[in-house]
Amino acid sequence: MKNGIFLAVGMVLAGLVTSVTFAQGPINNNGQPLGLGQNNPQQQPQQQFARQPQQPQPQPAGLMPPPFQISSAEAQYIDKILAFWEFRSKKVHHYEANFHRWEYDSVFGPPDPGVFKTRSSGIIKYEQPDKGLFQVDLTEHYVPPRDNQPASYEPRPAEVNEHWVCDGESIFEFDVPAKQLKVWPLPPEQRGQAITNGPLPFLFGANKEDIKSRFYLRVAPNQGNTKDEYWLEAWPKRPADAAEYRFISILIDQKEFLPFAIEVYDRNFNPEAQAPNKPNFSRTVYKFTNRQTYEEGGLTANLQQMFKGAFYQPKLPSGWQRVVQQVPAANGIQGGNIPANAGRPQQQMPR
């Protein structure tokens, strides 16, 4: 399951090459494995609710059925988290961080669900309202034990890592083998919201009502350090989102009230499947470190842009071509999703 920031973070969205092997679940703020599995925005929520299921509510046509029921107390608790999260996100004009990504693959990866197939590191940047950068600097692949040597992770010298930029009107893809900077124009109706409306609207511009309209939410069944972290699970309501992933775990730290880790579970995730079905533990874990946030008009952000230039204005490398892609309407963004297969003959947009 290959995910860019649009299906990581989202996106989208959303640095770390380590030798740590993670268990079947999210990671805490210290990088350790976790178990699987009107509001006043100034007052952070506390987890105090009884898990008494509420009565099922009728769902609008065209949405996925709810995978669970939560109590009214839990719903109020989640509303408080979302309200404070939205309040915090609106203050962030510019965001950048290193990320680490671990990909677990039950089909093409190691058979052990606790051993990842690849690990990557890179950088992510965002600026309101819809400018972003996602760049993988290094990817290492699992190498099985050989010649009496233990399993290891090694880079592939000829591999081309993901690198794209969004300026709010187009997505720029760096196609290294072809020496082309591919420009994918966004449909007019999607300009200004392509990143925040991606499959992972959890890194940038969190909006309480938008998140609730797209996801069934609950507190993660097996929370970790509830004193310093908030754990939520988001299950898609839209069939288009459900075709991409089963659910997403979001880990928010209490200090900055921004996600420090996101885990995307494969749409067929079922690690305990019985024959004739095979267990599916495929998932992708993102962890964000060295996070820096700047408010609009802040001196630091202004100086950065003055001396470094805007990150969302990619420069054409020497000897490269700038190629504007023609994207048929049928292959445009549907429901906020940008299709995969970037750079392939189908000429679809990158995630």
Automatic annotation (TrEMBL):
- Record field: compositional bias (Low complexity): 31-54
Q: What is the lineage of its organism?
A: Bacteria, Pseudomonadati, Planctomycetota, Planctomycetia, Pirellulales
The protein's name in its UniProt record: TIGR03009 domain-containing protein
InterPro entries this protein is in?
CHP03009_planctomycetes (IPR017461)
Annotated spans, Disordered: 31-68, 331-351
On the tree of life, the source organism's domain of life is Bacteria
Species this protein is from: Blastopirellula marina
Write out the biased-composition intervals (Pro residues).
Answer: 55-68
The UniProt keywords, alphabetically, are: Signal
Signal peptide, first to last residue:
1-23
